Amino acid sequence: MRDSINQEDIDFYNEYGFVRIRSLLTPEETERLRAHQNAALLRRGNYRYPDRDILGEDNPVYERMFVQRLNLWRDYEPIREFTLNPHIAKIAAELSGVDAMRVWHDAAFVKQAWANPTFWHFDAAYWSFNTRQGITVWVALTDSRPDNGGLYFMPGSHRVIDFDLPVFASEHVAGLFDLPGYAHWREQEPVCLPLKAGDCTFHNGLTLHGSSINMTPYRREGWVCAYMPDGATFNGKPNVLPEDYLAGLSIGDYLRNDDLNPVAYRRLGAEERAIRGCKE
Ligand SMILES: O=C(O)CCC(=O)C(=O)O
């Protein structure tokens, strides 16, 4: 597994709000994660979250975008090797310029054969915290291309988007651009970065993105992990948090539940590095 990036990657990420990292996972790791994810999906069945939200046919357009199941690590232990992985979280921290990253949630995003496009959105609109350093890694478990559901990003959108989106615009793929304040994105050209299995992209929580229709008879399988910088505070949105935890939370509280949102990577302080003889 790769655990380092270079300054060029960081500069690209800061400029555009996303970056492609080749061969994050070895072929063996990719196949292992894919097998874990498929086993976790079988076990999860119709529940979007481990504890709630049984999916029905109430929103057929959305349901045909992808099979989306969140927080697989909570009820399928083997996938923790990847969700709690310090190497992937370290890259996320370095791109974001923060010292420590907590896992927000992992997720399976499987686009079935002939699936609908994923509508334009940005992840931070859903999250329970507002920070410009939130980040998502999207790992290709099968090749991902413009013709089979590849991700598209709006370059630079993370620098201007704010945390004010009330709801997911679900009428059509560009429904977001119908909302006040988003219309100018309709004129912009997005970028699709094709990925081989094992490659990934990291994108900022405020980067506008979506994915294409799957015009093939094969599944496009992606695994995602969203990270929250340590120190982020509650903004009042429930998102993936369980009800019993939400009951005790107030807006402004430090989100520091180590069971739900463990720290996957923390940069050692100067003193600790000296003791351990690290060069980093
Ligand atoms: O896989 C997809 O189609 C969408 C993924 C996505 O929106 C995300 O990773 O935030």
TrEMBL record:
Q: Tell me which Gene3D superfamilies the record gives.
A: q2cbj1_9rhob like domain
User: Does the keyword field hold Oxidoreductase?
Assistant: yes
Q: Which InterPro entries does this chain map to?
A: Phytyl_CoA_dOase-like
The protein's matches in Pfam families, at most eight in alphabetical order, are given as: PhyH (PF05721)
SUPFAM superfamilies attached here? Clavaminate synthase-like
What GO MF annotations does this protein's record show?
Answer: 2-oxoglutarate-dependent dioxygenase activity; iron ion binding
Q: Which UniProt keywords apply?
A: Dioxygenase, Oxidoreductase
Cofactor names: Fe(2+)
Asked if the Swiss-Prot or TrEMBL record annotates the protein with the keyword Oxidoreductase, the reply is yes
What is the protein name for this chain? Phytanoyl-CoA dioxygenase
Organism lineage string: Bacteria, Pseudomonadati, Pseudomonadota, Gammaproteobacteria, Methylococcales
